[in-house]
CST complex subunit CTC1
Amino acid sequence: MAQPSAAEERWLEAARDFARRALPACEGPGGPEPPPLEAVLRCLRSAGGGDLPLGYSFISISDLQHQQCMPCCSHLTWSTNEFKEWAHQGQGSLPMQSPLPRTYLILVGYLTDGRQEHDAKLVDGCLYVKDNTGIIPCELLHFELEWLESLFLFPSWSYIPQTDRSAVGYVEILADPVPVNLPKEVCDNIPVTYLASAEPLLTSRIACKKRSKLTVAGELVRLGPLLCIHHKTFFFLFLKCLTSAVWVPVLVQKPNQLAWHHILQLGHRYTITSLSMTSLKKSGQRMFVTSVSSCLLPYCAEQVREQPPDSDLQGESTQSSSLETAEQLSGSLEVGVEEERPRSTKESKIISYVGTVTKILNGQAGLFLLDNKVCLCLAYHQLNFARGLRPGACVELIDVHLLQKPLVSFPFIVLGACLSSTVVLKSFSRLSTPYQPPASSRNLYLQLLFRYNLGMPLYLWLVSLLETFEERFSCFFGRHRLLRSSTHRNPGAAEKFLVPLLQAVVPDRVEARDIYNEILEKIHHCPLQKYLSLNPPCQAPSLSVVCCVAEEKSWEGFSPSQLLSPLEAQHMGTQELNRRLAWSYCTLSAESFQPRLILLGVLRVSSRSSSLQLQDKSSALPCVITHKDGSPFARTALIGSLLQVENYQLVVERFLQTDFPSWEHLANLEHVRGKKNSVYVQFCFEDVQVLHAAEGQIQKGLRSGNSSSLRRKADGSLTSEPETPKAKMLKLEDPKPDTHQDENCQGGQSSAERASCVSRLFVVTQKEGLMLRNYQLRREEDGEGWELQSSFQSTVLWLGRPQLWSHPRETGNLPELEETGCDGEEDLTRQEVLLLFMGKSLRWFPFLHLDGLYRFIVPCCSDLEVFDKLCFPPVPAKSLSRSSCPLCLPVQDTWHLQHETWVSCLTERQLAARSVLTGMDQRISSIPEILHNSFTGSLVSFSGEIVERTLCASLKNEKPFVTVGLRKQKGSLLAADHSLKLSVSAAPDSGVVMDIYIAATYLQHLWGLLPGAKILFQNLERKISRFHNVYCTYIASSCVSIISLPALHLPFPSSPAGEASSPSLVFLSSLQPHLQNLPQARILCHLSCVRTLSLQWVCSLCSSIFKEGRCTQHSPPCPSHTGVRQASAWVLVEDGTGEALVLCKNQHVGAMLGLSLLEWEALQNCVQSRGRVSIQHGEATGTGCVEEPEDLIACYLRNLCRSPLICRPILLDFSLSRKPSKIPQPAPLQLRNFRCGEVEFVSQVGPRPSLLCLNVEEVEQGTLSYLNSERIRRTSSHCQVVATA
Ligand SMILES: [Zn+2]
Ligand SMILES: [Zn+2]
């Protein structure tokens, strides 16, 4: 041998170093011998054809585990081309995956089953490679028992590192290991307890009597999985009689025999010695069980004499007949597409299959995808480690259940391995794919599977729910806390969510799975045999999916014409038409989705939008929460909690940008220029289930220790001496943010002081709406320019003095209310303060409500005067004189708001102490009160139910000053020149309606203004219109809160409500005193004459007369091609108690003239060429049209109006178009004669009210006489009846 080169020297030095470190010294005859390095080198030389692999280096197990963090492989003797070829072949089924990267490492170590380790628990049926530095699990495709505890060189292997803490990495042994030592040494390990005599094989009778050890030989027909139950590992194997179909089970349970599992191969013949008989306690099934001295030997015909087994033990091979091949599976795949009978119980077929793992669907749940088309489910089988089951690996499945479409929403056919199935790894993956081991302990998937003994359909559904759940919320709470199982004291959120769902679908008495039966029973019985294709009973998708689906649903089958009644729409000009389409909504409930949709989310509050939100990883969904008793939602403690809601209203507000010229174009969707939505959800707090309660906000705040509100002296001492107000103010107005506050808080202070916080109790006496105000956040004061700040303010009354808490606590009682009972009255007036919320403190907007008792908590603070630091609101100096601004207390970002209780909930004792609270409550009026003429006061608060909401043109004089800076306002989906008109009724049936106008700019923060919702409006401005109608407008100080949500059953939520009930029948004479607030009423009256009548076509754009297809507007020329027909008439009616002028519009004109719809249509069409036709009562023929001869249509209309046919009794629905107070005070009553049908009346009449026609109905003769007799009976006090002949 030549002298080693320098490189070889270095390599040998490294090898010696490795051997010293990693290889144990051998026990030689003369004491310990040096590590067997020479033998290793000899091995390496022979493997490398005589050369040492100088390009490779030794690696110890410990280095492998700690230094190698990516999957890798090493092939000692391969050329580059060989490796490339090997890697390329491995990519066959997954061309996108990269192959394992090659390393040049030499692995040498002992193969062991762990029996000699200190930790006996290691004997779990797995094999390991170990050296002096460590031990690592390994997987082999081929194994011999005599390899155990021998030193090997591994020429070809892959290392798969651990992916997370739950799993250790392992080695895949790709080629048989080369023994380092000569085989003679290994021979000693082979057990030699040989069959001495030709002992009878299966003689159970003798066995039972004598308890003698038996030897059994047979063909291995089934190999059960390694099972670990109650910390005991075992497996079953089944030997078939060599001459018949009879087979017997053998239980292998001794730790040193578990390694047998790795060498047993189906179809091979084995002999097992020293077996004894046992039977199961429960079922009495009998089987062989190994003893400590049992040996597994290859079958050797000469050494055994066969004896037929006892009938007790024999089992018919029931499966063998139903074995199918992979080809049959592909046939089944096709069948599966055709037959869709979801509701019938199906029987799963038992098949065998060989396939390649192409994806790990869910390692925890034991779901793998094979060949991109079949799902392998190992959850019912054994999930010990699933080592080797990486994408790219090939597996053979024997006797697995084939289930087609167990879950409707699950895309794959499922192969379910049960305990009588065998799963054999055929080849390792050559791809660099990770290993995702199932956590056997704390695996919620498997725990729930076994607890409820779920079948495959329910299990797959459970997996899909849990997967999504984990994906959505583990970023908030951490995986561990979410998936914590109830075997620990406190079940995690996932279990709280899933268990009720499972209990609802699983039969009451769940039969526990009997695994022994499943393995041993002659007739196979397992959870996978029968299944019912399952439609998922419910879903809980991510919020982004919820929003998408809701938006889709809201536009599904939508057409603009749904939003309008055609009778109205045909008379609308372009502007009005498109405005009426601009805003609509659609409400969805859990049942609107298929399957039922459960909402889950973490309750958050956004300071940007000042709205409550449900949040998950994907998105946030604004929400409106109410209480069933109508009290506002104020539970600050719920922030950060994970909520589940099943009873909710998902509202999609639809915003449509359209340019329909007229109603005739509504079907042409080209005129829809833009669609937008906003989605939010409303629900009652009572319908909420808290899956995971938030930890206290204050504690959290304290831990993070951030506070910008600290007002301490620089030396950190508390300011106990009184400060002048001026000094305080200067401090507050210090433009520099407190940069050293955190040091104040965390460093330099004692821990007790650090944890202390100051709190103060207050009651809200007034809250104003959220809007842009010309305030500035202080920190931006030195910046250039100013912009409007979203803000709100609230007037509160301090209760008691500030409290210093050494540590945060929950206060059940309110000590402030009791301790300061004797403070005296004058003290209290001083304690009223205006709170200003801006920036982050805007998040308290949804929680702060009138009459609520709250506490501010300032963490990391011990300054009791922190709440006394009033200042001017941060108005730009030039814009307003400060003297006009009240002092206010800006609420700092870090202050916490904690809701305590409501004024109405205080105990008598607390109330007595605070008698001042009574009387300060804001007056809530009723709608009739506000509508009444005698009402005084301009700011009003009231509650009512929204009857109708319509978009209308902005009131010209209602432009609030904020609109100036509104262009860049985000999220506003309505044009700024729109305003919302809400018709609000006092009670569902009252018919008394108040109109409220809200400018579009305010709408951004107002959720839930839907028909049917009951709303508390606060501080609206009461106004009186030109026509003396009372209405309200929403102004800067206004505020709304939702008392109750609309009922869900409205079939067409966007159609105006209140149409169902017909108005009450009244007399004209009674209009004045009683009915000024009635929205509408009905009279039976006689049409006396038509005063004026006008039919016209107007331009849909500019409302000029539209004639012969063109607009008559010339300067500037109008481009419109669309005319809209319009009609109006004033008619005189009388009902015997009085007369009234009625304004009829559009279709009501036709009805008033007694024309059928067709006649009316034809008449209007005749006007088209003329542009306009109008007549007046008393006009002579031809007058008014000097130039032209009398128009035919005008002539016809005049004759129609004069005809006695027109003067007939009608039923008229109307509203008072002008309130009576507008009419000059009553002229003296006159006596007049009236006719009504056959009856003539003499009556006193007052002035004529003017009415707006809402509907005209013809009266049939029978009805007329009935109504007449009714009214004669009822009106005897009103008028005298003169009988006519
Ligand atoms: Zn089965
Ligand atoms: Zn025009």
Observations:
- The radius of gyration is 44 Å.
- The chain has a mean pLDDT of 77.
- The first strand starts at residue 26 and ends at 28.
- Residues 394 and 427 are 5 Å apart (CA to CA).
